[in-house]
Design goal:
heterodimer; A: about 280 residues; Immunoglobulin-like; B: about 600 residues; mainly beta; Methanol Dehydrogenase, Chain A; 6-stranded antiparallel sheet; signal (chain B); PQQ_MeOH/EtOH_DH (chain B)
């Protein structure tokens, strides 16, 4: 939990006027919370991602990433908000990125955890805000050092004349995951998928923004299990890991999606045969 | 009005079960309807179609700006297309509800506030590296219906975007860009169907006209333009185009060309769409004996099912790259006390054709350029050219060329770029004249051996291009369709490559590669106004009325096919700088 005892000196004075304009006279819950990273961009990020909604800094939202981004084009980040219990949305963003929003995750029938790779332009706090059913955002984060340049470099696909032939191809695998919890064991399906896509930010000279906007994971009957609304800073050929909870007798997961040029993405991921499905059907 | 439409959309969603059919209606209500599009030529408050009316007359009833007042016309604002992609800008803007929709080079679409020039949104298609546009990375314009705007991209896709947000609604692959297909023409919309042609004639593709449901993008019918290929209707095979091997030998019809790269026009009176078809492939005509139907033709097609009603072949068995793609403009021919439902076309081959649009019967064919070396005229009974056989580029098998495998070169006019190329002419029902942007040039041409290879140029010919006169190449000509006579002409040093507009204000507008947007007296040809836009003009001008004032707009940005060729023509154009700018003009307020 964030505490109030850190003085905010210059930052507060500098941003005071802007903050007043952005959020008006209201002083919603969390307005007095202090950013543990003391980022100069926090007030802007808050306005951009959370708006006027109440929030608190919360260590139960774990964001894991390397201390330093060895490859600014592929920074692995994992978000785990399972300690909060029920979560409706997770917004991932990076304060100092020229395009701060990275993705918006809706774990509809899924555990509130997601792993991805992203592009970083410079050293920044990478944050995840998890929305609980009571309407409060819980914000966690990690600071990642970076040499810079991830968002303004052309995608590797730019040097490959054949990328368009493989555009939207999906590689994926699903396998059972077992978690220990207070009530005993719970079962879910871990899905890791990679989509071939340049994910152009539009910031590299002469290359328009071209990125996946939506990926939806469904069960065999077409019901939504999880939804990822992604933005430009997600890495080229995005890799996502999520944990969904399809029906016990499900045979496959369906992945559908679309990029900002209207390219349709569609793939079926077979589910491993599970003892539990046999138990369900013979019970 | 906007508020009312919003509430309709909400009601549709609340209605639940009705939502699907109702939301489609709401989408239509949020923008121009099919009826608005059909009436575009009569409603000067908007420009909803490429051609300023589905018939493509490019005529406006506005006359606030006329031969007298135009002397005071000044720019209101200009908008830069920006980026490092300043290539040929052959677009015609659309105007609806105070918003201009204009396409740019490299498959870009901009939505601008028509009053201020402020950008509302921009869509940049992410093109693959291997696109193969033959003649610059141009686009000629968008289409609009309901809440969507549409345009074709250089990788042969048709994209529908929300007109207010620029977000892609659907994106359909029309053809395989790796086989040489692309899409540069503006689509047309007829009764809820979006109808498109294809490009790629120099790569041995097969031309086609296709109709899709404008709401969903689903294919309704296809009509290949080369005899022997099968059409489709509602996902099933419909009828074959022509009769297989009636005018083609062997399997050449599979790579026969005939690309419909300039799009089409529509006439409601006869319920016909008119699409021109490109030259047959390869250029070497000795490799493909026969008329090679339906290349280098105008096709009248039923928009409901894609069936061909009639065809008129302007260059049977073409050997000079005389595409027949040029726009076929419907008009009432008043001749000998009768009114004939006619259409006219100024062809690449140098002839101005007047054709009965109800049955395809030739009324007249008269040259609109000084030389047509390939034919001495047309037989009005048969509708066929009277060839000058000595001017057909000889068979390379007979030798006589500069190198082994090359045929003997001959000099022919018009050149392969045509007496008139893509740039659309205009027709004024006020003066009963057509205004044709023509060019005076010829070519040395010789044939070579060639075999088809997917994605490679399929020509089998070599060529140069040469001006016919020292002082001009371009000539804007006013043609009387009753007689074929040239009433007046304006000569331009560089080749003309932009579209034409005419108005009830007795004006004719066109742009020049030298950068000028020019206005002429429609009756006399006297130049009455000009403005230099800073780069060569190869776009098509429009005019509309907004807040009680008349506006004129043109895209400036040099490019297209002309700068791709060298020789004597290059001397006239090599110093023209590139650009990418939309200009808007009006009269100053009194």
């Amino acid at each position: 939990m964030g505490r109030l005892d850190v003085p905010r000196f210059g930052v507060r004075r500098f941003c005071g006027a802007m903050l007043a304009v952005m959020i008006g006279a209201a002083d919603p819950a969390g307005a007095t919370e202090t950013d543990p990273f003391r980022s100069v961009m926090w007030d802007d990020m808050r306005a951009l991602v959370l708006g006027d909604a109440p929030f608190r800094f919360d260590d139960r939202v774990k964001v894991t990433a390397p201390a330093s981004a060895e490859d600014a084009l592929n920074v692995p980040v994992a978000v785990d908000a399972t300690a909060l219990g029920a979560v409706e949305r997770i917004a991932v963003f990076a304060d100092m990125n020229p395009i701060p929003r990275i993705l918006d995750y809706r774990p509809i029938a899924a555990r509130p955890t997601i792993a991805l790779r992203l592009k970083l332009q410079q050293a920044t706090a990478i944050r995840a805000a998890a929305l609980t059913p009571d309407g409060v955002w819980h914000v966690g984060g990690v600071f990642v050092d970076a040499a810079g340049g991830g968002c303004t470099s052309p995608a590797l696909a730019h040097g490959d004349p054949t990328w368009e032939r493989h555009l939207g191809e999906v590689q994926a695998r699903a396998w059972p995951a077992v978690q220990a919890s207070a009530e005993g064991q719970s079962k879910s399906t871990r899905l890791r998928l990679r989509v071939r896509h340049p994910m152009d930010t539009g910031l590299a000279p002469g290359i328009p923004a071209f990125f996946i906007e939506t990926l939806v994971v469904r069960d065999g009957d077409g019901r939504e299990l999880a939804r990822i609304d992604s933005h430009e800073p997600v890495s080229e050929n995005p890799v996502f890991t999520v944990e969904v909870t399809p029906p016990a007798d499900g045979r496959a997961l369906l992945v559908t999606g679309r990029d900002n040029n209207g390219t349709e993405i569609r793939a079926s991921v077979p589910l491993a045969w599970r003892q539990s499905s046999l138990e369900t059907s013979t019970r | 009005m906007k508020r009312m439409f919003t509430s309709i959309a909400v009601a549709g969603a609340v209605a639940g079960g009705l939502a699907v059919s109702f939301s489609a209606d709401a989408a239509r209500a949020a923008g121009p309807t099919d009826q608005d599009i059909q009436k575009d030529a009569e409603t000067p408050g908007d420009v909803l179609t490429y051609g300023m009316g589905l018939q493509g007359q490019r005529h406006s009833t506005l006359k606030t700006i006329n031969t007298e007042t135009i002397k005071k016309m000044v720019p209101v604002w200009a908008f830069s297309f920006g980026g490092e992609k300043q290539r040929g800008q052959e677009s015609q803007p659309l105007v609806h509800d105070g918003v201009i929709y204009v396409t740019g080079s490299y498959s870009r679409l901009f939505a601008l506030d028509a009053r201020t020039g402020e950008k509302k949104w921009q869509y940049d298609a992410r093109l693959p590296e291997g696109i193969m546009p033959c003649c610059d990375v141009v686009n000629r314009g968008a289409a609009i219906l309901g809440d969507k705007v549409y345009f074709g991209t250089l990788d042969a896709r048709l994209v529908a975007l929300n007109k207010d947000t620029g977000k892609v609604v659907w994106n359909k692959k029309v053809a395989d860009y790796q086989a040489g297909y692309s899409m540069t023409a503006a689509p047309i919309i007829v009764n809820g169907k979006i109808i498109t042609g294809n490009s790629g004639g120099e790569f041995g593709v097969v031309g086609a006209v296709e109709a899709r449901d404008a709401e969903t993008g689903e294919l309704v019918w296809t009509r290949p333009t080369v005899e022997g290929n099968m059409g489709t209707l509602n996902g099933k095979e419909s009828t074959m185009t022509g009769t297989k091997n009636a005018s083609w030998t062997g399997d050449l019809w599979q790579t026969g060309g005939g690309a419909t790269w300039l799009g089409g026009t529509y006439d409601a009176e006869t319920n016909s769409i008119f699409f021109g078809t490109g030259n047959p492939a390869p250029w070497n005509s000795h490799l493909r004996p026969g008329d090679n139907l339906y290349t280098s033709s105008t096709l009248a097609i039923n928009p409901d099912n894609g069936e061909i009603k009639w065809h008129f072949q302007t260059t049977p068995h073409d050997g000079w790259d005389f595409d027949g793609v040029n726009e076929f403009i419907s008009f009432d021919l008043k001749k000998d006390g009768k009114v004939i439902k006619a259409g006219a076309k100024a062809d690449r081959n140098g002839y101005f054709f007047v054709i009965d649009r109800t049955n395809g019967k030739l009324q007249s064919a008269t040259p609109f350029v000084t030389q047509t070396s390939w034919a001495t005229g047309f037989d009005l009974k048969t509708g066929r050219p009277i060839y000058n056989d000595a001017n057909r580029p000889p068979n390379p098998m007979d030798g006589g060329g500069a190198a082994a495998g090359q045929g003997k070169p001959i000099f022919a006019a018009p050149s392969f770029l045509g007496g008139k190329n893509w740039m659309p002419m205009a027709y004024s029902p006020d003066t009963d004249l057509f205004y044709v942007p023509a060019n005076e040039w010829g070519m040395d041409i010789w044939n070579e051996a060639i075999t088809y290879k997917k994605g490679a140029a399929y020509l089998g010919a070599g060529f140069t291009i040469k001006p016919l006169f020292d002082d001009y190449i371009g000539a804007l000509r006013a043609i009387d369709p009753k007689t074929g006579k040239i009433v007046w002409e304006y000569k331009n040093p560089a080749p003309l490559w932009g579209g034409v507009l005419t108005t009830a204000g007795n004006l004719v507008f066109t742009g020049t590669p030298e950068g000028y947007l020019k206005a002429f007296d429609a009756k006399t040809g006297a130049e009455v106004w000009k403005f230099n836009t800073g780069s060569g003009i190869v776009g098509s001008p429009i005019t509309w009325e907004m807040d009680g004032e008349q506006y004129v707009s043109i895209v400036s940005g040099w490019g297209g096919a002309v700068p791709l060729w060298g020789g004597e023509v290059a001397k006239k154009v090599k110093d023209i700088n590139q650009g990418g700018m939309l200009w808007v003009f009006k009269l100053p307020k009194a």
